[in-house]
Design brief:
Layout lengths: L6 H6 L1 E13 L4 E3 L6 E5 L7 E7 L3 H4 L12 E3 L9 E8 L8 H6 L11 E6 L13 E12 L2
Length: 155
């Protein structure tokens, strides 16, 4: 049987450590992804706040990004964020709307002209980390895994 020392002693045994949060499993309509890997380009986002309004645009065909709006819609979806957006890896969509400001940087606009010559519609989301505010009647269970990784034992 392995006996783990108290957490404060455990942490002091290591010089380098990393905390992480990962969505472990859950309903496919409860979890979304607004990173470039999922086809989205975030036009404005602060890495230093937990609650903020962002604008984003789908970089591919519309069907590529529809997952965010499927099921119950974007509101109350837990979304994965890019590393330079928000203080954590996940946020809750508090509000979703089409902003009046449909502008985007020229370099991004040049990369996403659709086959018919049109530009995709810019979307807007209010993000927060108030996960307890999710309307659970709309969603199935969602599970998070909190972890702590360490390396380099002290001498």
């Amino acid at each position: 049987m392995f006996l783990r020392p108290p957490l404060h002693k455990w942490v002091s045994l290591f010089r380098k450590h990393e905390n992480y949060l990962r969505v472990q499993w859950g309903s496919n309509t409860a979890i979304g992804d607004i990173t470039e890997a999922a086809g989205w380009k975030i036009l404005n986002c602060s890495p230093d706040v937990l609650t903020q309004d962002i604008r984003l645009v789908c970089m591919g065909e519309t069907s590529m990004c529809q997952h965010l709006f499927s099921g119950h819609g974007a509101v109350d979806t837990i979304v994965r964020l890019s590393e330079d957006c928000g203080k954590g890896p996940f946020a809750r969509v508090q509000k979703s709307w089409i902003p009046a400001d449909q502008s985007m940087p020229a370099d991004i606009a040049a990369r996403i002209v659709r086959r018919d010559g049109s530009q995709p519609q810019v979307q807007a989301l209010t993000l927060d980390t108030n996960f307890t505010a999710v309307d659970s009647s709309k969603l199935d269970k969602l599970n998070f895994l909190l972890g702590f990784l360490s390396s380099e034992p002290c001498d």
